[in-house]
Amino acid sequence: xxxTEDHEVAQWPVREESxxxxxxxxxxxxxxxxxxxxxxxxxxxxxxxxxxNQIRKFKQLAEKYGQSGSEWAxxxxxxxxxxxxxCSIRTGLWNLRTAKxxxxxxxxxxxxxx
Length: 114
Description:
Blueprint: E1 2-4, E2 7-10, E3 22-28, H1 36-46, H2 52-64, H3 80-85, E4 92-97, E5 101-107
Parallel strand pairs: 3-5
Antiparallel strand pairs: 1-2, 4-5
């Protein structure tokens, strides 16, 4: 159990070894331009869910549209408006699977309008 003061924040499930994978949901929250989408894109790539050639394509497109350095964020920001504005408009979702876990990764918008 992870707790702050007297309030329980999260309780991790205690499981015995089994064939069933642990399900985990991760929500990235924070202010606009704090790197949520970039962090999500880098994590997805690091876990092998998106190939290097796709990142190269995103990098070329980002440079073409004046958004140099946004290739990692474009993994999660798929809408044309998100890519043009350089900010998330809707919550992005990516399902990651590792040997031991099924992870739902959610990337929330940071701008107050969204």
